[in-house]
Structures are given as structure tokens and as C-alpha cells.
Write a structure and sequence with these properties.
The protein is an alpha+beta fold and 73 residues long. Helix content is 27%, strand content 29%. The protein has helices spanning 42-45, 51-66, and strands at 11-20, 23-33. The longest helix has 16 residues, at 51-66. It comes from Mesorhizobium sp. WSM2240. Pfam families: DUF3016. This is DUF3016 domain-containing protein.
Length: 73
């Protein structure tokens, strides 16, 4: 019996620093992943090159720097 392979969700390890006029405001390292990337985004992003990954990074950036949500953990 052939086993079914499950797709691996997109995952990134990010290291970043937020600097304003030479002053360090925040430095962090985060693992960013979306375990539910296939739920609801399937038809919208599946035909674009790295579509899921781009959406995930765009959403992370908005949470972190637009809405100023702190990193988890």
C-alpha cells in the first residue's frame, strides 16, 4: 500500500532588528510558520510562485510592525 505524503507547511526562521535613527528599538529571532496554510488560501495562492510563503510573510510583517503585536514566547 502506498503511503500518502502530506505537504510541509512553509516555515522561516527570521532574525531582525528594528532601528529608528540609529537607536535599536527591538531585536528578535522568530520561527514563522502557518500550519493551516492550505485551509482557505488554496485556490488563491497555489498558482503563484511562492504564493503561500509571500502571504505568510506579509501577514507576519503586518502583525509585527503595523499592528505592533509582540513576538510570542
Amino acid at each position: 500500500m502506498a503511503s500518502r505524503r502530506h505537504p510541509t507547511p512553509p516555515r522561516f526562521k527570521l532574525r531582525y532588528a528594528l532601528v529608528d535613527r540609529g537607536k535599536l528599538l527591538m531585536r528578535a529571532e522568530e520561527n514563522v510558520t502557518d500550519m493551516t496554510y492550505l485551509w482557505g488560501a488554496g485556490s488563491t495562492y497555489s498558482d503563484r510562485r511562492l504564493g503561500y510563503e509571500k502571504k505568510m510573510l506579509r501577514d507576519w510583517f503586518r502583525r509585527r510592525f503595523v499592528h505592533l503585536s509582540p513576538p510570542r514566547g
